[in-house]
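Subgroup meeting minutes
Present: P.N., E.W., G.H.
Scribe: E.W.

1. P.N. recapped why we're keeping a running log of single-chain structure predictions: easier to compare across weeks, and new members can see raw inputs and outputs side by side.
2. G.H. added today's entry (158 aa).
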Amino acid sequence: MENLTFKIAERKDSELILEYIKKLADYEKRLDEVIATPEDIEKWVFDEKQAEVIFAKLDDDIIGFALYFLSFSTYIGNVNMHLEDLFIEPEYRNNGYGKALLKELGKIVIDRGYGRLEWTCLSWNKPSIEFYLKIGAELKDWELFHFKGDALEKFVKD
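Output recorded in log:
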């Protein structure tokens, strides 16, 4: 673990961020849903500052990433770090690097005084769910709903 470091993404990393988004989407069997471009990443992550990205580096090699943004909890009256994406390259899994990346995010939450670190996980992704429970994360009883594309357009117009 001594050679593991973390790097905050910069604008020049926009294509690499998108590459990692696609790797995660492929793992989740949802690659066909990725329509983001490097320009989208530049606009929303770096220009509009709506998300942040951190890379996990082993020696000089990027081995994973996390993309997160802030949400607000009315119950606690504070912002939360919402972890949208977390991905470790397959050949580096089961070595503690994912846990180390989550710990790094936890340090950011504590240092910035946020309320909590939260994320969602696909219900079929049993290895990740087991990992999160093993490290002490709580599984809440929330269901995720969303509108997008034509369904959103239809809803707004009806």
